[in-house]
Amino acid sequence: MNPLFRPPLSPELVARFVAIVGEKHAIIDPGDQASYLIEERGLYRGRSAAVLRPGAVDEISAILRLASELGVPIVPQGGNTGLVGGQIPLEGEIVLSLRRLDRIREVDAGSDTMTCEAGVLLASAQAAAAAADRIFPLSLGAEASCTIGGNLATNAGGIAALAYGVARDLVLGLEVVLADGRVWHGLNKLKKDNTGYDLKQLFIGAEGTLGVITAAVLKLYPAPKTTETAFVGLGSAQSALGLLALVQNSTGGATTSFELIGRLPLEFALRHGDGQRDPLARAYPWYALVELKSSAREPLRERLEEVLAAALASDLIEDAAIADSLDQRNALWRLRELVVEAQKREGGSIKHDVSVPVAAVPDFIAQASAAVEALIPGARPVPFGHLGDGNIHFNISQPVGADTAAFLARWHEVNDCVHAVVEKFGGSISAEHGIGRLKRDELARVKDSVALDLMRSLKRALDPKGILNPGKLL
Question: Residue 421: in which H helix or E strand, if any?
């Protein structure tokens, strides 16, 4: 029997939870729950005794206090954009949706901070920062639908991590409801606070297994006054590594994004994206999407042109195009975004969100590609991602004409193949998507045993009854 299995909750117990939020904000009918029970790729489909949509921290506290008393499992959920099943109730758990906690409590430009509730959309947080002539630099493809709480629970990365870090680097304080219903009021704007353990870091990246993040104080930065974007053709991934070093050394902290894209993923985007065109005159094996930003009005265009001219003269790059307008910049980034969408049109795709040391990225891609092609002849590696921080989305599209179901049935076999190469280079099997259910068993194999013991000790201390997102991460 599944050790996580729990018998269905009685209507009387469900009614006690519903009473906390009111019938208007509780969803009981399975048909009405559908958008909360299925993750984006369809890998996980769950069931729930109830979807609760609290609108205040006090309501969340009451829900968890009752859940702790009764031993009822709870699955916290933000925008339901996660890709590893961490937000799906797989054994009938109650879903705790944070979407109604959507207030931006404060934007403090003087302190360069913003206090957001967990249900605020990432795009809304970005817009609020922009209205104060600031930026919140976390940027993801799902930013129009993912939430701040979900971003922090999974320690999201994105395209600007090279310059600003990942989600945990962008947080000063948290408000968290613990498993027993107590509220930790840790919302502070202090950049220096040496009064003991940095508790907020326990909850960021914990995927809702240690507590429910309800609000956060986020770091803001001066809005860029100058932005320059270039699309560069390269002969090899190794050349991309050389270009990254040249750009960073020549532009200092102005380099905010450096995306690596293989020719095949670009072909997918061109093939399936309406009205898309190749930015360069001919095809190259690899491409880099490079962006520079500065909060001062400085001649970044000249600096970028000088860097690219030097790279061209030394045969480090093959060709390059610099965006001349905002529309052209948006078109270049649209191509990058289309890589993810276009894969769906090419049949089954087995995905990997991994990281290796930046200097090892070219060798990792070469060796992982060879290993996958040997395992499944005709399989099509689709590597792309954030070269600047070593995070590569190493996806595998099915062979042309292959049976999709048969290909996807080899998901774990392909994972083992790719993750073995990741381990060889001292990398991580999850760079920015989290562990969830998808990688839980694999984590137990690759994680240091002492680290796992510490994680389990934290789980027992903060959630002794095991009610928070059971069966995920650990």
Answer: helix 411-424
The DSSP output letter for 48 is B
Task: Give dist(CA 333, CA 474) in Å, integer.
Answer: 36
Distance in angstroms between the alpha carbons of the first and the last residue of the chain:
18
Q: What is the DSSP letter of 350?
A: E
Backbone angles phi, psi at 337, to 5 degrees: -65, -35
Q: Calculate the CA 9 to chain-centre distance.
A: 33
What six digits make up the tokens of 299? 């001649």
Per-residue pLDDT band for 275 (boundaries 50, 70, 90) equals confident
C-alpha span between 71 and 316 (Å, rounded):
61
Question: Can you count the helices (H) and strands (E) in the chain?
Answer: 16, 19
And the tokens for 451?
Answer: 């680290």
**Bridge partners, residue 52, by sequence:** 26, 96
Which comes out higher in pLDDT, residue 316 or 253?
316
Query: In 16-103, where do the E strands start and end?
Result: 26-27, 51-52, 74-77, 94-97
Distance of CA 148 to the CA centre of its chain: 11
For the purposes of burial, counting CB atoms within 10 Å of the CB of 10, is it exposed (0-12), middle (13-18) or buried (19 or more)? exposed
Question: Which of 319, 291, 292, 308 shows the shortest CA–CA distance to 234?
Answer: 319
Alpha-carbon span 204 to 434, nearest angstrom: 11
Torsions phi, psi of 245, nearest 5?
A: -65, -40
For 91, 206, 471, the CA distances from 150, given in Å and listed in that order, are: 21, 10, 18
In Å, how far are 214, 257, 336, 339, 429 from 333, measured between CA atoms? 32, 11, 5, 10, 26
CB atoms within 10 A of CB 319: 16
pLDDT (tens digit per residue) in 171-205: 999 999 999 999 999 999 999 999 999 999 999 99
pTM above 0.85, yes or no: yes
* CA neighbor of 340 nearest in space, from 354, 329, 351: 351
Q: For 222-272, how does the pLDDT look when each residue is reduced to its tens digit (9 = 90+)?
A: 999 999 999 999 999 999 999 999 999 998 789 999 999 999 999 999 999
